[in-house]
Amino acid sequence: MVQVRTAGVLAALAIMGSLVLLAATGAQAETRRAFVLGIQRYGDPDIQNLTRADNDAADIASDLQEVGFDKKNITLATDVRTRDEFDKKFQAFLKTVDEGDDVFFFFSGHGTGIEASNKNYLLLGSLKSLKTYTRARLLDADRRDDIIALKMPAFESQYDADEIPKDGVSVADIIHAIAGRKPAAAFVVLDACRSLPPATADIRTLKRSATSGSRLLPNDDLPTGFLTLYSASYGETAIESFGPTDKRRNSLFTEVLRQEMQRPGQTLPQLAERARLVVRAYAAKGGFEQDPEYFDNLAAADDFTLVGSVGAERFPLPQQQCEGAQQDWEQISQQPARETLERHRRRFQDCPTAELARRALVDLISSPVGSSFTATPLDRNIDDCDRLAAADIDNARPPEVPGVSLGKLDFDAAIPACQKSIARNPRLARFLYDYGRAQQAAANSMRPDDPARQQTLLGAYAAFKDAADRGYIASLYSLATVFDYAEARNPDQTQDQANKDLTKAADQGFPAAMYELGLRYKKGLFGIQPDFAEAYDWMGKAAEAGSVAAMVDVAESLWYGQGVSPDPRRAVEWAERAADAGSVDAKVDLGLFYFYGYKIVDDNGDIDDAKSVLSDDSRALLWFGRAALASNARAQYNLAIMMEAGDGLPIPQPEIAARYYRLAAHGGFEDAEIDLAERLRSGRILTSPENGANEAVDLLRRALSQGSARGATYLAEIYRNGEFGVMKDPLKAMQYAYQAIKLSAEADPTTEDGNPFFEADAGILLAEMAVNGQANDINGRPLLDEDEVDRLQKFYGTINPDIGKVEVRKLEVPLGCNGYYSRHATLWVWDWGRRVSPTEPQFRSIERQTGCYDNATLRRTLIASFLLAKKTKVPFADLIYQQIKEARDTVDGDTAAGRHD
């Protein structure tokens, strides 16, 4: 791969978004038919028109043709006004469906759900609004807006019963009509409803409710062979646009669907789950919440794929379940956080360290990191129960009592001490609370299969309840959380009751409860639906009450606009408060805030200085340095990047950068592990004697144990080529490559592993091995059939027959951010069998991650170059390289001639 820096040149260059889809597997020969519907214009002035529904429908229809759907088997309908119009088109489509066909139904537009009948409706263009419906039923004298608004609730039930069925189409009716044709499989996709809130509302700050967004309800009676995918959960607003700078063609959900449907070998449930993960992650990154949901009854069609396999199911990577578990635990236990602990439990669920991670999670909930409450010891006698078991987060404890975290509580000594204290003073609720904590600590030290554990937990719960009933607020918090991560069931408490107890503690101003409740609303934990606005409210209260962890969260919410309008300046202020209180996470955030900067633009297009934060490399370097001193691997990695580039420094410092790369990598930060391994492979950093000749391989294996797709791909290359003393092993190389594809499909799309290039990179390696005769068994027979090889080249990378490989070039390009914080990004160019440029899915990913959407010129130029390369049969990478060279020569010539524009 050749790297070409083009920061100033690619401003003269610049893909169309498309997809490929639904190619049948070798075993699937059914006819595939699609009905694609987009409703963008609504006649009633009180129903907001959409702007992208027509594009959504047209692009999906085009994508289906691109992958083998016959045009005559696709019905595209837009601007459908009435129920009669819909029925005519849909019935004509149904007549073409034969038994055993596969059916794809797609809708983009407004929709709603009627709770009284538990029915979903797709809304057509002639729909009247509730306001119009109410106005028509009032006397002329009452038809004023203020009176109509007061009367609307009284007519809502009648409106739902009369108007919605008249000018809407029941989803259940659509599904059962398709089922009547007896298809082999049916995929029903509903991108609705997307604009129910008032046009002037800031969706970020809306509290989630049944009327705040999509009201589509799930289907309880799906026929066999069906999967229904909704773009948003009940009560959410499906995002059409992230704001005025977001000028993309499609809604968030449809764009994600188009990209994710092209993955070879992916079943419908896997596709739905991936779409849910990506939409949720991109929405959160942009400060919104949207969580698609799906329901299926596939039965015999549960292995149905839209695009055929490339052989992954035959080449699983044999791994020891606990390989790397101990090393991972040793690193994350140094600075435990929920995200890393939960990741460890998922990855190593059957390993001994998973139990250690579970116990650490209980400790974090019981003594949230970052509480600023401390006791001032006085020269007085301290009761043994208080001394041994008082909570460090309980600000109602006596001022002379320091408090102890749950993980450091000596329960063997505390239990009898508290029993004595309770006997001496049975009216003091605090001793009951302390006693409950001692029992909770004891239970947390036991293995989940220990028969005494359940009774000990129930004993803790009873003590907490007794104390809570006597008005002890801290006990309400522990009462609500004692069974969280306990892997035990409480027959005396439902999750709903636990959340009510937590809310009671938060309402009474208990900081840990406010923080925990905010976290549950933010992440959708323990039965609470995600609600960023509600989360921000609780986090703000906890931060004001002194919770340092909440201060960090408030800063990040203000920066990314999660539940609140973005305000970078206030974000920095909160992060500085948290950093001053000792938060290492806040120091890392401040480094990132100052590194990127964030310019807020007002309605006139001017920068709002009062809210904006300018990029400042010196300050970024300072904050990263402070966090690095606390052994934070992420900070060490960012410090290495800046020192290597010389950002914020008089000159680059490559030697110091190398030291920080190594510290971050051996500290367990995945990006650093990958970067350091690649530097070792390329010789940019020398192998350290104390780490051995296999340092790069060890780092990549470590990254793989963390679920890194890049780690798997680079290991595949090492086993393919035979590097670092590793013998060539084509089979193992293939296994690692397929593992990379799998991990990429599971990765958070806002991380490096979620970059679509890295999935393609693994596919390219497989395609090259197959075409060059490296993917053969010991008898020389190909391990992949022709269809699988064809799909690898179509969906991942086309081999240049002259050199027997896929030519790939790396470009560094500037991003247009419309006044927001500016960035550069990495793009990769190569050839594949799709009609869309491979840079386009990368742009979709990059733009969603950064919020930098002003790249239309660059994208169109790269599309044109890709199409020209196809037409002239010139490798795309070579053509781009030549265009860049010509642009540079032109710029150099103009400069020499005195032109500087």
From TrEMBL:
The keyword Signal applies. GO terms for molecular function: cysteine-type endopeptidase activity. It comes from the Bacteria. GO terms for biological process: proteolysis. Keywords: Signal. Residues 1-23 form the signal peptide. The keyword Signal applies. Pfam families: DUF2610, Peptidase_C14, Sel1. Residues 32-296 form the Peptidase C14 caspase domain. PANTHER family: ERAD-ASSOCIATED E3 UBIQUITIN-PROTEIN LIGASE COMPONENT HRD3 (PTHR11102:SF160), SEL-1-LIKE PROTEIN (PTHR11102). This is TPR repeat protein. It comes from Methylovirgula ligni.
